[in-house]
Design a protein that fits this description.
Radius of gyration: 17 Å
Strand content: under 5%
Largest sheet: none
CATH architecture: Up-down Bundle
Structural class: mainly alpha
Shape: elongated
CATH class: Mainly Alpha
């Protein structure tokens, strides 16, 4: 969790510099979200860093969802498999959704 937190912090800082302030996005145009996303994710290093950070975020989210259920009192041997499954499903859906955009740009499906 410690390294995941560091990766997520770096990701948030880079994300703000890239998509909000345009400091690290060479094709940044204020207000043109689609163009900014395409310009940023057209660079393989940026796209793969983003995907790696989203995976780290997913692991963090999995742990957090698992722990939140435990905090809410769902810590019982007969519920643990449901809790693990729900945390995994939620995490997998979110990670797949967020990875789909840079993957589509890298695959040439979005231009």
């Amino acid at each position: 969790m410690r390294w995941g937190g560091v990766i997520i912090l770096l990701f948030v800082v880079y994300h703000l510099l890239d998509f909000t302030f345009g400091r690290v996005n060479p094709g940044f145009v204020a207000g043109d979200v689609y163009r900014n996303v395409i310009a940023s994710f057209s660079l393989p290093l940026v796209a793969y860093f983003y995907m790696g950070a989203v995976i780290a975020l997913g692991l963090h989210l999995y742990h957090g969802t698992w722990s939140a259920c435990q905090t809410l009192g769902l810590n019982h041997p007969s519920y643990n498999h449901l809790r693990r499954g729900a945390a995994g499903t939620l995490t997998a859906l979110l990670v797949a959704g967020f990875i789909a955009v840079p993957a589509a740009v890298q695959a040439g499906l979005l231009r």
